[in-house]
Each structure stands twice: as C-alpha cells, then as structure tokens.
Amino acid sequence: MSELEITVIVVVGTLALLGVVFWLLPWLLDRPVQVPGAVSVSELLERECHSAPKVPYTVEQAHRVMQLRIDCDTATCPAKYAAFWTVVDAGHATPDPRVVR
C-alpha cells in the first residue's frame, strides 16, 4: 500500500468519525421522544379553547356539539359544558348525582 492510499484512508476515516460525532450523535440525542398516549400542547389548547355560545344551544345543536367535542371534558371546554347541560335540561341525559352545575 502506498503512502498516498494510507493518507486517503486516514482522512476518510477521520471525516467519517467527525461526521458521526458532530452530526449523527447530536441528531440521535435531540430527537423528540414519542410517548404513547401523550397529548400535544396544540391539542390541549384546542380542547380547552372551544368557547361557550352567546345564545343557548338548541337541543339538536347541543347533541351535535357533544358529538364534535367527544374528546373534550365538560370541566375544561365551555362549549361542551353548555351543550351537556342543554341536553340534561331537555331530559335527554342524566348526569351523575355527584355532578354539580
């Protein structure tokens, strides 16, 4: 093997090692961790930012809102809260006796 070939092999090996150290390892370490069942911040904001209606829902509208906001909680979603109590007032649902309005 000639001196030139050895030099080329050493240079290529060094560049490959530098690439691993300065590109691949930081990329592997900085990747976001995917947690099963985790909820993104934007999804949380979307769940909590459905405003209550200015005019009370009709029963039909309330049923539709309940379907659309199935993933929302009445404690954090004003739209679902208003829809839920509209459906309850219409006699279409019965809340748990522990639920306070």
TrEMBL record:
The chain crosses the membrane at residues 6-25. It comes from the Bacteria. The keyword Membrane applies. Keywords: Membrane, Transmembrane, Transmembrane helix. This is Uncharacterized protein. It comes from Nocardia callitridis.
